[in-house]
């Protein structure tokens, strides 16, 4: 008799976090005229995939992420998550911004637990879950610290733990390490790669750091500056954890740089 718990069909049915974008367009009004930011964009993201979105300034990277988060409504087209249309924010998505936006009057553990209590969990259950994710990001010893006592990298770890504690299917990140120094940024990239693999969620990262894109992504999607041009992509078929000095890594980084006319 077949073991149904191992059925590939049933296992696939459990996979969550698929994103489909169809004919998506977004415009803003500036100085009395319409400015097209995203034009007729199509994109498919598989459950559990890690995607990096890059593009020149003004290409619409952050706008796209805000549409995916439900913070902006598109003017045309639609976004589907697991086949359901997106209208507003939802618990299946969590967003991490460049600044962690912690509550300065609450301890680290309370910053993580507070959204869970607001969502209806008991404080005991919320703190228990918060401690689990604080341990996951390597800050178990800082549970009672306050945000002002943390470094920038530590504060961003707390922001990641707070997002993961909500148990999202999709993690959306907008330049999460852009404000950190170079060494801390590398450490945080390594930590994020580890957490993504452990949590098995879909990750969509907006970044201007092309090396970061190659290090973290399964695919790098390049938004065009010219709004009538198609979306381009580069597949990152490298083993993990990735070696930044390996020949294949360097070649892909240079290929991505060439997309922007860099050497």
Describe the model.
Helix 3 (108-118) crosses helix 4 (123-136) and helix 4 (123-136) packs across helix 5 (152-165). Mean pLDDT is 89; it is low at 1-13. The chain has two domains: 17-92 and 170-263, 3-Layer(aba) Sandwich (Rossmann fold), CATH 3.40.50; 103-167, no CATH class. It is of the alpha/beta class. Strands 6-7-8-3-9-10 form a six-stranded mixed beta sheet, with helices on both faces. It has eight helices and ten strands.
Largest sheet: 6 strands, mixed
CATH superfamily of the largest domain: P-loop containing nucleotide triphosphate hydrolases
**Quantity of strands, as a count:** 10
Q: Which quaternary structure do these chains form? A: single chain
* CATH topology category name of the largest domain: Rossmann fold
Specify the number of helices: 8
Strand content: 15-25%
> In total, how many domains does the architecture comprise?
2
Tell me roughly what share of residues is in helical segments: 25-40%
Structural class: alpha/beta
Please give the order of strands in the largest beta sheet.
6-7-8-3-9-10
Q: Which CATH top level class of the largest domain fits?
A: Alpha Beta
Low-confidence stretches: 1-13
Distance between the termini: 59 Å
Task: Give the overall pLDDT as a whole number.
Answer: 89
Q: Indicate the overall shape.
A: globular
Radius of gyration: 19 Å
In CATH terms, what is the architecture of the largest domain? 3-Layer(aba) Sandwich
**SSE string, helices as H and strands as E:** HEEEHEEEHHHEHEHEEH
């Amino acid at each position: 008799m077949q073991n149904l718990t191992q059925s590939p069909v049933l296992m696939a049915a459990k996979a969550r976090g698929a994103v489909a974008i169809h004919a998506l367009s977004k415009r803003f009004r500036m100085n009395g005229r319409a400015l097209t930011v995203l034009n007729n964009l199509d994109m498919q993201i598989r459950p559990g995939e890690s995607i990096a979105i890059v593009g020149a300034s003004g290409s619409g990277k952050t706008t796209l992420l805000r549409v995916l988060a439900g913070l902006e409504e598109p003017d045309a087209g639609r976004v589907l998550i697991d086949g359901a249309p997106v209208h507003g924010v939802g618990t299946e998505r969590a967003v991490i911004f460049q600044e962690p936006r912690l509550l300065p009057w609450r301890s680290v553990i309370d910053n993580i637990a507070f959204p869970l209590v607001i969502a209806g969990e008991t404080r005991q259950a919320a703190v228990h879950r918060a401690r689990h994710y604080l341990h996951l990001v390597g800050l178990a010893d800082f549970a009672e610290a306050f945000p002002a006592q943390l470094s920038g990298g530590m504060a961003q770890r707390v922001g990641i733990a707070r997002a993961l504690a909500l148990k999202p299917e999709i993690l959306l990140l907008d330049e999460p390490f852009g404000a950190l120094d170079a060494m801390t940024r590398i450490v945080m990239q390594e930590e994020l790669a580890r957490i993504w693999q452990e949590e098995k969620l879909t990750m969509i990262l907006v970044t201007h750091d092309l090396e970061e894109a190659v290090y973290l992504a399964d695919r790098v999607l390049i938004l065009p500056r010219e709004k009538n041009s198609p979306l381009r992509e580069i597949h990152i078929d490298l083993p993990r954890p990735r070696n930044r000095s390996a020949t294949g890594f360097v070649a892909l980084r240079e290929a991505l740089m060439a997309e922007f006319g860099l050497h």
